[in-house]
Amino acid sequence: MSCSYTYPQQYKLIETFWIKMPDAGIKSLIEYPEYKDRVEYIEDRQKQTAVLRLHNVTKNDESEYCFRLITEKYKERWIGQPGIQLKVSALQVKAPQLVLEKERVNLTCDSTCSLTDGFIWYKNGQVLKIQSETLQLQSERSDSGRYSCAVRGHEHLPSPAVSITVMYPPQNTSVFISPSGEIVEGDSVTLSCSSDSNPPALIFSWFKENQSSAVGSGQSFIISSINSSHSGRYYCEAQNQHGSQRSAIVSVSVKGVWNILYIIAVCVTSAITVGCGLLFLIIIIVQKRIKKINNDSKDTEQKKTSAGKASESRDAENASAQDDRDTDTKKPEEEEIAYASITFHHSANEAK
């Protein structure tokens, strides 16, 4: 918004600002908290022109804006009237905030400005492909979110966002047992019921198969000091204002202490039997190994004995052959001619 102004030049101009009419206090816009960070003054006193820039305009900004001049002389101050009339074309999304799943709902981009050239829709800040004035939803759970719209060519001025929440009855209802695994008499068991719904289910009922009435209520069903009478098939039912759903059946089987002791005894006996069998098998295998080792030792000794005898026989034969060779070698020496001399001695008596 802009204006031009004149004033008596004999007075010194000391202050200028913009005001919103009607304003009993006649204060500058920047003195009001709702305008403080959205107002910008631009003024050229030589040319005697002034500009008011208003950012983030809303419907509440619709009013008459005037320029105010104050001089140094008391009572010499003026307001430029009539001022500038600001009309705000309100752009808003018209839609119900709560819708039921599968219910068809229309969102309308409403504008007081007739000079529009198409619309742009946003969901959670992301541009949608729909470009008409009306956005139609089939109300799936994924449709929950914040919707806004803008006039084509003025995308920087979107409407305030409107939240759409899709409501639906309980779904995917299920039961969990804690602790899991084998349940023994005297244990404490908790059955928990969960479901997906909007708004969240607040009513939970527990049923035991073949019983006409509910056996418990609340999201958790606790059985303290459980016994065999609690064995059976259980299910829960979750409910909100839009409907209800039953879970699948879960079985609770309680085993007595004596049954557990019997199972432990059987397991221990089986373990001992298996252990004895393994020990017997190991003994047999060890005996066979020892026997095999002994047999191998005997065979080795026999082979060594046979080898020794064969060696002795070969040594004897070799010795005999050696004696024969020695005998043959000595024969030529015995056949050599030996010469001997004999001397006869006669006694004196014989000579006489």
Automatic annotation (TrEMBL):
<feature type="domain" description="Ig-like">
    <location>
        <begin position="160"/>
        <end position="251"/>
    </location>
</feature>
<keyword id="KW-0325">Glycoprotein</keyword>
<feature type="compositionally biased region" description="Basic and acidic residues">
    <location>
        <begin position="311"/>
        <end position="333"/>
    </location>
</feature>
<keyword id="KW-0393">Immunoglobulin domain</keyword>
<keyword id="KW-0472">Membrane</keyword>
<dbReference type="InterPro" id="IPR013783">
    <property type="entry name" value="Ig-like_fold"/>
</dbReference>
<dbReference type="GO" id="GO:0005886">
    <property type="term" value="C:plasma membrane"/>
</dbReference>
<keyword id="KW-0732">Signal</keyword>
<keyword id="KW-1003">Cell membrane</keyword>
<dbReference type="InterPro" id="IPR007110">
    <property type="entry name" value="Ig-like_dom"/>
</dbReference>
<dbReference type="Pfam" id="PF13895">
    <property type="entry name" value="Ig_2"/>
</dbReference>
<feature type="domain" description="Ig-like">
    <location>
        <begin position="82"/>
        <end position="151"/>
    </location>
</feature>
<keyword id="KW-1133">Transmembrane helix</keyword>
<feature type="transmembrane region" description="Helical">
    <location>
        <begin position="260"/>
        <end position="286"/>
    </location>
</feature>
<feature type="region of interest" description="Disordered">
    <location>
        <begin position="296"/>
        <end position="336"/>
    </location>
</feature>
<dbReference type="InterPro" id="IPR003598">
    <property type="entry name" value="Ig_sub2"/>
</dbReference>
<keyword id="KW-0812">Transmembrane</keyword>
<dbReference type="InterPro" id="IPR036179">
    <property type="entry name" value="Ig-like_dom_sf"/>
</dbReference>
<keyword id="KW-1015">Disulfide bond</keyword>
<protein>
    <recommendedName>
        <fullName>Ig-like domain-containing protein</fullName>
    </recommendedName>
</protein>
<dbReference type="InterPro" id="IPR003599">
    <property type="entry name" value="Ig_sub"/>
</dbReference>
